[in-house]
Amino acid sequence: MTEEELCNSDQRFALFMRVGRAFEICSEREVVDYIADAMIGGIKSGDVENKPDFVHMAISALSGITKTELDILLMMHRHQIYVDADFRRDHDSHREAFIKECEDTLGIKSTMLSPITTGLMRTGLVTSDTTGLSGTIQNPYSLSLLARELFSYINLARRLTE
Length: 162
Fold this sequence. Notes:
Helices cover 67% and strands 4% of the residues. By secondary structure, it is mainly alpha-helical. It has a two-stranded antiparallel ribbon with strand order 1-2. Helix 2 (10-25) packs antiparallel against helix 3, helix 3 (29-44) packs antiparallel against helix 5 (52-62) and helix 6 runs antiparallel to helix 7 (91-106). It is globular.
């Protein structure tokens, strides 16, 4: 993004300032990389002009999360644990694989995973599933539609650099 592009668009300038504030809060380089990718993807998708509030909310959601929280979000994304994915027959097996990967990779048991994902609800990227008729769900949390937007920006930015 050139200085001229930045100065000629209020939305881009505001986004740049939000990203700068997010960088000040983050202490983990990997989280900073994801914030930068979200900014690039938000600009390249055109959403910074068309729906700037969503881009700002997505980037703000990453501000202040820890590396472990980011890893959990990435695993949820990889396993497609999204609030609107309940229609899939294999949704429970994806959730179980996610829980197992958290335990194997991060050393986080399901009893600790639940409070961490509860804490991630503060970001707006994670939401609690309702129990519905099927009874209780182990670790009843899913990525929100805002998380889907965020990961679409990140994926767009990463495709541009491949």
